[in-house]
Amino acid sequence: MPRANLRLTIPKGVWIGEVTRANPDVLVRVLAALPDDETGVGLAEIEGGDVPRVLETIEDADDVVALEVLQHGESSALIRFETTAPTLLLPARAAGVPLETPFEIREGEVRWDVTAPQARLSELGDRLENLGITFTVDRITQDVTDEQLLTDRQQRLLQTAVDQGYYDTPRGASLTAVAEAEGIAKSTASEVLHRAEEAVVKDFVERLRSIAGAE
Question: Global pTM?
Fold first, then answer.
């Protein structure tokens, strides 16, 4: 499943963007966030800058309806907030893309790591654009945590083929040599390698299409 690293610019007028732009030395780390139809509730850490002034600015924001300071230090604070403008959360929820926390906001820019099928990532991009939220895809990788791309046997044989020089140019080992190294028949080695190659090539091409579709 594709995993995307996104960099978003928070639109002007959204409180969290205004606060971090006005305080460029402040980092806001969102630990948890939950939107509903009209409001959003979140838990966040504030680090750096003039923390009392930052807290005052947040409390005075028109779209922040509740602010609770859970912990307060000299240069950091832990807050719980409720806002009537969960602008960043709604497109992700509508697209069915869960946001991974924590995510960080600095100078009006937020970075997200999201894992979702390509169709949902594309929908997320459309919804962000519809809200006027500009974003950049820094990287897309293939997350194979939940579904292994190759079987253990395919991985082992493919590694042996690489180690033997089967994929070198010019070829440093024959298919027979690879099969003998694994103690299997040549025909078996050929079939297993072919299936492994098919999976790797198709996965690579799909990743290229994912990157092209997100740009």
Answer: 0.65
